[in-house]
């Protein structure tokens, strides 16, 4: 590759930027968004359908933007700077996306469906699963961001 996308320093800087963007996004979700959402489900289950639907509607474009940026920069990084630290960053970021696709998103889907009574009420076991998936994503986002920063330092 030629041009700025082929410049290893530019690609590593982009990898740092996107992984730290992801970490910041994930930190806000883990520290603020999910605790409020889960507390609503536990303490005010009658408000759950509205709160969960609003959460899903508002966060989807942000997830799309952050994960889309990770994908684009990740593909370029894999082609231009496939060093050990970069590959750890890419694997960890990919792991966070995989946890979202295989655990968090399906759990959100289940939490938004009516139960046996016909009402949409949060299942405590599903809320716990969602929080565990979120913790895994936060750890993976942190690993990705640190590895990307290390890639710049050792280049």
Tell me about this structure.
The chain is built from four helices and no strands. By secondary structure, it is an all-alpha fold.
Report helical residue fraction. Answer: over 70%
List low-confidence stretches.
none
Structural class call reads: mainly alpha
Please report the number of helical segments. Answer: 4
Number of strands: 0
Shape: elongated
State the order of secondary-structure elements, H for helix, E for strand: HHHH
User: Beta-sheet strand percentage?
Assistant: under 5%
Compute the average pLDDT.
95
Main sheet summary: none
Report how far apart the termini are. 18 Å
Radius of gyration: 18 Å
What layout of secondary structure does this protein have?
Layout: H1 8-43, H2 48-80, H3 84-111, H4 124-154
Could you name the key traits of this structure?
155 residues, 0% strand, elongated, single chain
Short overview:
It is built from four helices and no strands. The protein has helices spanning 8-43, 48-80, 84-111, 124-154.
